Structure formats: structure tokens, C-alpha cells
Amino acid sequence: MIRFFLLLILTTTLFSAQVERFRWVKDETYLIFLERHNLPTYKLYYGLEKDDQELTEEMRAGVHCQILRDDNGVIEQALLPLNDELQVHIYKHNDEYNFEAIPIISETRTEAFTLTINNSPHYDIMKETGSNKLAQIFVSNFKNSLNFKRDLRKGDTLVMIYDQKYRLGRPFSMPSLKAAMIEMQKKKNFIYLNDDERYYDAKGHEVEGFLLARPVQATRISSYFTKRRFHPVLNKWKAHLGIDYAARRGTPVVAAGAGTITYAARLGSYGNLIKIRHADGYETRYAHLKSFRNGIRNGIYVKKGHTIGYVGTTGRSTGPHLHFELRKHGVAINPLNVVQVTTKKLKGKEYDAFVKVKENYDQSIELHLSNQTKYEKPAKKESVCYFNNGGTCI
Q1: Which of 109, 221, 315, 356 has its CA 20 to 30 A from that of 265?
Q2: First to last CA, the chain
Q3: Alpha carbons 226 and 224: distance in angstroms, whole number
Q4: Hey, what domains does the chain have and what are their CATH numbers?
Q5: Does pTM surpass 0.85?
């Protein structure tokens, strides 16, 4: 029998007191959260498997969370998002609290707007939409190919097409840029997200982002980045917040970018782990290493391509490989979206497929330009949901 738990999200004042909504506080850990709400720390943290304990470390400031209380103020359930795919679900059953990681129920909407530049793309997008996230992803995807300070003029136009996830009727997680255009000195500059999840300009040239070197010479990728994956052995939802490169034991591992080593020691299921802090809030992690190169220690600066260690199988690992993670301001992101050995130009069948993607986006961009589509702030609406122990909203 499927157990149905009453996580009820309502708009009426009659029930609003039962549901507490809050944002995760900066510097608060999951363990502090449990202690602050008098929840059993052993059952919900210390008694968990190591992987689940590490999963709770993904909590980040500003995320919208929910707590459901009974008439006496006792917590019945809590939903604590870890990323845009997985969330911690704490629930009370037979007078005992339980822990599980479940998928986040969300919908994705494709949205777009156009605006005229009066100051700068970042400032004007912020002013128009109130969203720092939209401003960030627009500027970051053009910053290495265009010079806004030198070439941008008041009155120039931009168009932005993006995907936005919604959770319980509200915008949730970072938007994903699909296509954009900015007119500078009467020339239109385009960027498109291709089917290979990389960005290209109108000629099929890859747009340079935060350039990193591949950290190891590997024959194949044995496991890809995903924020939610149902583990066939453990029979539960887990995240794989990195890329696994299959390689022989002892294969050199290099720093993917210049930066300062902030950790070089053994750490739980990571095994031998190195963390490197880079510019602009980026951090890379290199796990399951056989050993570190001589001289590698906390506080030293390494250059891009510098050997830092060697492939192994320490920690929770079924065979020799490098587990490589990329994080920005503490949030795990897909390395394949930004790790580039060299930029490339699409050719042959790849280019033909890209042209079809490009033409569809061009039609949409021209439509929004002709209509001068304004940004529409999403209406705040609540959803009515019951969650079962599989995370299904019914």
C-alpha cells in the first residue's frame, strides 16, 4: 500500500497557519535546523547512511522550504530542497520521524522578453524583471565574446528566451538560457543553446565561457552529472553531482584551472580529495585519488594543467576513475556545460542540425522583436498538493 502523507499547500486563511514557509538561512546547517526545531538528530542525521548525510550538506541559503504542523504546532512534515531536482522529505509516521530524498515536482515554462538598453544589460534586466538570476545568465554568456562597455549604446535592443522551472506555482532555481540577441552598433549578435548543451554564435562557432582544461586523459565518461538518479542497488533517489572519467590507476590528474588548493586529504566516500578555489566563485573537486603529487597541500597556488594527483579508487568506488565536480558559490553545476579543452566550429551533420535549431530560435526572436514583448512578472499562485512517500504530487 502506498502511504499518503498530508503535505497540504493551501491559500485560504483557514489552513495557512498550518503551513510555515521560509527561506533557508545563510550559514545554517541541516543539523542546526534539526536541533532548532527539536527534531531527533540521530534518526534524521547521525543514523543515516553516509551518502544521505553528505546529501544534506547541499542545503543552500535562500531556498524556499515548507513545514507542515498539526493543530498543536508539532511538525508533521518538512520539504527542504537540495537543488532543482531533489529535496529532503522529513515526515512523521506512527509517531516516528523518517528521512527520504525525493524528486521535486516542478514544471518548466519557456518564457521570453525584449527591452531597450538605457544603462547596461545587467542593470536594465534587473530593473525590468527584478531578477538578478536572469541578468547574470544573460551577461555571463556574452561577456567573453562581446565588449558591452565599448560597443553598447543607449537605445540598443536585447531579446532573451529562457526556460524557468516552477515549484508550487512559483519560479524555482536558476533559469536556463535558450537563445538571446543583443543589438550593438546596428549589428545583431546571437547566442544559441544547441542540442549538445553548448552555446554557439550564428556561424556555429562555440561561444567561450569559463574555460577549463579536461582534468584527466580518459577513454570515456563512465557516469554523467545528474541532480536526481534512482539508484538501482540502494533503491532510493540520489544525486551524482559530477562527472566520472574512467582511467587507469595512476593516470595523472591536472588542475582544470588556475587557483588555490583549499583541501587535500581524505574525506568520507570521496576518498582522497582535492578542492581548488578559482576566480568568480568557482571551485573544482577531484575525488577517489590514489595519491597526491608531492608538494600538494592546502594554501598553495596551482596553474591550469598542473599535475595535482593520480587516479585511484579510494573511498566509495567500484573501480579506478576520477570523480570531477564543478561548483559555483557552493552550488554544483554540470562540468560539461563549461569545461572546454578548445572551442570548436560545427561542421557537416552537426552544423546542419544546429541550423535547424538556430532557425527556430531566429523566428521566435524576430517575433518578440516585432511585438516588443515585455517581461511579465509571474503571478504568485499556490498549488494544492499531497505528497506520497515516492514524492508524487497528486
Answers
A1: 221
A2: 16
A3: 6
A4: 4-104 (3.10.450.350), 107-208+343-371 (3.10.450.350), 220-337 (2.70.70.10)
A5: no
